[in-house]
Design brief:
138 residues; mainly alpha
Length: 138
């Protein structure tokens, strides 16, 4: 019984190591995708001699770039803040993702309205998450 108790105490440490390795590998993959997206944006703006076909598509690419950037920043913050994910980074990612969704799929006014309300709720949550009472990384 004592052996089982000792092994269960080591389990969280093992899972933390697995999580850290997985997040590190995910950061590498996201960095590669970020560079690919950067090249795509650079080539469509600078290297392309023709006018941009769709500004919605370009804005979509730009927002995907920021999503990659935010996820990488979240992983960096995780390692810098002693293996803790700050809530406000998830809110930033959620707001960016919803803005991207509205830009790409804005055909129905009611749907766009509800997504806008979701952004408003996330901004209110961000305000609450940035108060000194809730925030622990100041």
């Amino acid at each position: 019984m004592k052996f089982i108790m000792m092994q269960t105490r080591k389990l969280p440490e093992l899972l933390q190591i697995v999580l850290n390795i997985s997040l590190f590998l995910m950061a590498i993959v996201l960095s590669v995708l970020l560079m690919k997206e950067t090249w795509s944006i650079f080539s469509s703006v600078i290297l392309s001699s023709e006018e941009i076909d769709s500004y919605f598509a370009f804005t979509d690419e730009l927002l995907v770039f920021f999503l990659y950037f935010e996820f990488i920043a979240l992983i960096v913050k995780y390692f810098k803040s002693n293996f803790h994910f700050p809530l406000r980074y998830f809110i930033y990612i959620g707001i960016t993702a919803i803005v991207r969704l509205i830009i790409v799929d804005h055909d129905e006014a009611l749907s766009t309205f509800w997504w806008s309300m979701a952004i408003l709720v996330l901004i209110a949550s961000l305000f609450l998450a940035n108060t000194r009472v809730v925030r622990k990384d100041h």
